[in-house]
Each structure stands twice: as C-alpha cells, then as structure tokens.
C-alpha cells in the first residue's frame, strides 16, 4: 500500500519523513548486530509476501501483512519496511522518494501499535485468545494504515475528502482478508516455531 | 520471478554518473517537483525528466511499460476527483457533473507523478542496488540501515524461489485458489512456512557472517571519486531544479 508521488502537500510529506526518521532510529537502536541478518531476511520475506496475490471474488488483491511484521520485529518494523520501500522505489518505481517517509509511517506505525496492543493476547496459551488477537493484529494494522492514508490526503487538501473516505471504505475487505490470513499464519507459527513470535523485539 | 535492476546495466552518461550525485539530485528534484503547484513549473519538471531519460539511453518500450504499470494508481484519482472536488461544472455526463477544479487537480497529480517517476528511472534505476547502498553509506546513512538494505536485497530472490517452491508443492497437491476459507488458510500456512524457513536461513547466514569475521559493516572495494563530468552533470541537474523552482516562484508574483 502506498501513496504515489506528486499528491501530498509539503507539510504532510515532511511530518511523515520526521516520524519515519524517529521510528527508524528507535528500530535500529533496538536491533543489535546479531539481529540484523534476521531482520534483513525477514524483511526480504515480507517483500516477497507482499507480491502474493490472494483471490477475492472475480479479482485479487496483494497482501500487506504489516501486522505480522510488527509481531515478528516490533519497532524493527520501521527500518524493515523502510528498506522494503526503498527497494520497491528503485526496482519498480512503486512509491517514491518524497513519499518514502509517509509510506513508511503508514505501514510501520500501525504494525508497532498493534504489536503493543495485542501482544498479551498473542502470548496467551488459550487457542481462542491468541487467534482472536492475531485476527485483530492483521485487520487492525490495515484499518490504521487506511486511516493514515485518509488523514494524509485530508491534511493535504479539503478537496480529497471524498477520495479519502473512498480509500477507507476500500480497505474494509482487505481488513477482513488480512485478519483471517494473519490469524492462520500466527496460529501456524505458534505451532511450528513459537520462539519466532515471542522472542521478537524483547 | 522478480524482474530486478532492469535498467541498471548500460554505458550512458547516466549510468556512469557518480551514485552520490545521482541520489542527491534525484531527491532534490523529486521534492522540488512534488511541491510545485503551477503548471509552467510542472511542465518544466516533466521536460527536465524527459531530458534525463533521453540521456540515459534506455529503450523507449521498457520505460513506457514501467510507466503504464505505475500510472494505474493515478487512474483512481481521475475516476474520483473530477466528480468529488467542488468547483465550476465543466462537463455533464448523465447525472454526473465533472468539475474544472477536479480535472485540473488530477492533471497536476499526473504530471508531477510522472515527472518524478521518469527522473527516478533515469537517475536511480540506472545504478545497481549494491552501488546505491554503498553510496548511501558515504552520504552518512547509518551502517546498520545500509546493511539491512543490502541483506534484504540479497535475500529477496532466494526467498522468492522458496515461495515458488512452496507454491509448486501446493499446486501439485491439487490446490486451486478461490474465495474461500480453505484457500486463505492455505496461503497463510505457505506464508507462515516462508517466515519459518526465512528465520532458519537467517540464523545460518548470521553464523556464516561471523565465520568470515563480520564486524558490523560490509566493505566495498569500490572507491568513489568525482570527476569533471560528474560535476558538470551535477551542475546541469542543479540548473534544471533551479528553473523549476524559479518558474514556481514566479507564479506567485
């Protein structure tokens, strides 16, 4: 999910960049050199996962999975997502340079927020509790991302109000799918290699 | 397969230009263009980006294909803004009114977006990621971030193959994707497996790096030096950026 170049106003671009610098700084500080290889390979797997298209009715959408990024990397989500966006911008020209900050924030901030909100549920041993938590991580991260996109558009100009509302509405089906996929995915990781989830960013 | 670094090989002046100058000029150009709001400034930016892409000597077809793909998102604004932005009615199609302001706003977004995209292809996509990574390091981007960038790029292709292998495995077992819970569960397990394998691989990578004496930095044997032609190109791009800025400023007078 990105906002393209040439749409947002200067103040919005700059506040996005400032927030992204702060978040990335915290993320890098918490990531010691022993974890860089882990973060790099995981960030590569998110890059690949975001190329996966999942069918929805006659069409298909690609996954974002920023909720899972948050669960695996915590604050490390900021540098991991920033790096993935830089690669997308250089390799495919998706996103761009000026929007790098805003785009990083709109995916990484929800990831970190959902991590803190739902990690107690994810750590639970009760299947019902951690699966519900995982669903909320997946769908909540997308909802928050959609809201940040809408806010960036509205702060850019009043004329984007309806377009922003449309963007949030368009995120509702994605929320459900990301929630379901995150739920199964976290359930699977908890069964196969629980250390991957709980050890992250602690 | 991920088509990567499509534009990175070549012998044009853009390919030979020092990557540090490319990164700085692409960034300043992008911000100047993104903040422009007058049509003369925007067209100047578009013109400048076309000059840069012409100099880069990339084939017209691959560049156009790339632009078409990226312009898909812009289409959304053309479908929405002319209908929703308040202003003077310009055209009436059945019950729908297209406003002049909405059309102008969509046009602005299209021109600026494409100017930045074209300049990014000309300036950034003409370098390999590893060159850009090391250049970023010279530009004082933190070691750890550059390391993360290089490692991520290195493993994208490995993990893409891993994903394709998992996909072949589910296909061979008769999986046909559809809009149902079973499909979503299958995709989720494939992604989960991808993460599990990625984590195991990361451990091995980390051990291999330690074996080779890793101490927190990738070293580059390449030395960057700025020659006359690098300074000339830096000046040329600088003049383009100043002209865009001057046209934008003059629209306020």
How does the SSE layout of this entry go?
The complex is a heterodimer of chains A (202) and B (253).
Chain A: H1 10-30, H2 33-49, E1 53-56, E2 59-62, H3 66-73, H4 77-92, H5 100-123, H6 127-156, H7 161-192, H8 195-198
Antiparallel strand pairs in A: 1-2
Helix pairs in contact in A: 1-4, 1-5, 2-3, 2-4, 3-5, 3-6, 4-5, 5-6, 6-7
Chain B: H1 13-16, H2 19-35, H3 39-56, H4 60-70, H5 72-84, E1 89-93, E2 96-99, H6 100-123, H7 129-138, H8 143-172, H9 181-211, H10 228-250
Antiparallel strand pairs in B: 1-2
Mean pLDDT level of chain A: 89
Q: How would you sum up the major sheet of chain B?
A: 2 strands, antiparallel
Global structural class of chain A = mainly alpha
Q: Largest sheet of chain B, order of strands side by side?
A: 1-2
Percent of sequence in beta strands of chain B = under 5%
| Annotated CATH architecture of chain A | Orthogonal Bundle
Query: What's the helix-strand series of chain B?
Result: HHHHHEEHHHHH
| CATH T-level topology of chain A | Arp2/3 complex 21 kDa subunit ARPC3
Overall, the morphology of chain A is globular
Number of strands of chain A: 2
Q: Total helix count of chain A?
A: 8
Provide the gyration radius of chain B in Å: 23 Å
Order of helices and strands of chain A: HHEEHHHHHH
Main interface: chain pair and counts = A-B, 73 and 87 residues
Q: Class of chain A, according to the CATH hierarchy?
A: Mainly Alpha
Basic shape of chain B: flat
What value does the Rg of chain A take, in angstroms?
Answer: 16 Å
Please estimate the helix content of chain B.
Answer: over 70%
Describe this structure in words.
Chain A is mostly helical and 202 residues long. Chain A has one domain (10-198): Arp2/3 complex 21 kDa subunit ARPC3. Chain A has 8 helices and 2 strands. Chain A has helices spanning 10-30, 33-49, 66-73, 77-92, 100-123, 127-156, 161-192, 195-198; strands at residues 53-56, 59-62. A two-stranded antiparallel sheet of chain A has the order 1-2. The two termini of chain A are 28 Å apart. The mean pLDDT of chain A is 89. Chain B is mostly helical and 253 residues long. Chain B folds into 2 domains: 13-134 and 224-250, no CATH class; 141-211. Helix content of chain B is 72%, strand content 4%. Chain B has helices at residues 13-16, 19-35, 39-56, 60-70, 72-84, 100-123, 129-138, 143-172, 181-211, 228-250; strands at 89-93, 96-99. Chain B has a two-stranded antiparallel ribbon. The longest helix of chain B has 31 residues, at 181-211. The mean pLDDT of chain B is 89. Classes of the chains: A mainly alpha (202), B mainly alpha (253). Chains A and B meet through helix 1, helix 2, strand 1, helix 4 and helix 7 of A and helix 2, helix 4, helix 5, helix 6 and helix 8 of B.
């Amino acid at each position: 999910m990105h906002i393209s170049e040439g749409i947002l106003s200067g103040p919005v671009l700059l506040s996005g960049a400032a927030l992204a610098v702060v978040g990335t700084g915290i993320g890098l500080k918490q990531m010691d050199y022993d974890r860089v290889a882990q973060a790099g390979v995981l960030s590569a797997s998110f890059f690949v996962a975001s190329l996966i298209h999942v069918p929805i009715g006659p069409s298909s959408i690609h996954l974002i999975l920023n909720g899972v990024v948050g669960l695996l990397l915590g604050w490390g989500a900021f540098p991991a997502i920033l790096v993935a966006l830089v690669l997308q911008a250089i390799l495919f020209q998706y996103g761009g340079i000026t929007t790098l900050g805003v785009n990083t924030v709109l995916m990484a901030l929800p990831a970190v927020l959902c991590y803190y909100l739902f990690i107690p549920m994810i750590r639970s041993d009760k299947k019902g509790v951690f699966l519900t938590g995982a669903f909320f991580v997946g769908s909540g991260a997308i909802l928050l991302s959609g809201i940040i996109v809408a806010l960036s558009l509205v702060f850019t100009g009043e004329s984007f109000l309806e377009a922003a509302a449309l963007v949030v509405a368009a995120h509702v089906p994605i929320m459900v799918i990301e929630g379901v996929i995150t739920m199964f995915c976290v359930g699977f990781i908890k069964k196969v290699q629980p250390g991957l989830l709980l050890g992250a960013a602690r | 397969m991920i088509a990567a670094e499509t534009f990175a090989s070549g012998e044009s002046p853009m390919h030979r230009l020092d990557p540090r100058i490319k990164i700085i000029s692409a960034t300043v150009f992008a911000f100047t263009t993104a903040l422009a709001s007058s049509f003369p400034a925007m067209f100047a930016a578009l013109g400048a980006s076309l000059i840069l892409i012409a100099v880069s000597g990339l084939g017209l077809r691959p560049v156009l294909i790339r632009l078409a793909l990226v312009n898909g998102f812009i289409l959304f604004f053309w479908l929405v803004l002319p209908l929703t932005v308040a202003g003077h009615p310009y055209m009436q199609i059945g019950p729908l009114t297209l406003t002049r302001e909405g059309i102008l706003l969509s046009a602005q977004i299209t021109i600026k977006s494409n100017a930045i995209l074209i300049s990014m292809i000309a300036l950034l996509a003409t370098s390999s990621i590893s060159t850009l990574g090391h250049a970023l390091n010279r530009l004082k981007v933190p070691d750890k971030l550059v390391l993360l960038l290089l490692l991520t790029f290195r493993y994208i292709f490995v993990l893409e193959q891993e994903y394709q292998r998992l996909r072949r495995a589910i296909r061979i077992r008769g999986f046909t994707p559809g809009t149902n819970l079973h499909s979503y569960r299958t995709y989720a397990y494939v992604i989960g497996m991808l993460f599990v394998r990625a984590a195991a691989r990361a451990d091995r990578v980390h051990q291999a790096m330690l074996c080779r004496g890793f101490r927190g930095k990738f070293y580059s044997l390449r030395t960057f030096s700025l020659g006359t032609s690098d300074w000339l190109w830096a000046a040329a791009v600088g003049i383009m950026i100043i002209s865009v800025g001057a046209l934008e400023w003059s629209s306020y007078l």
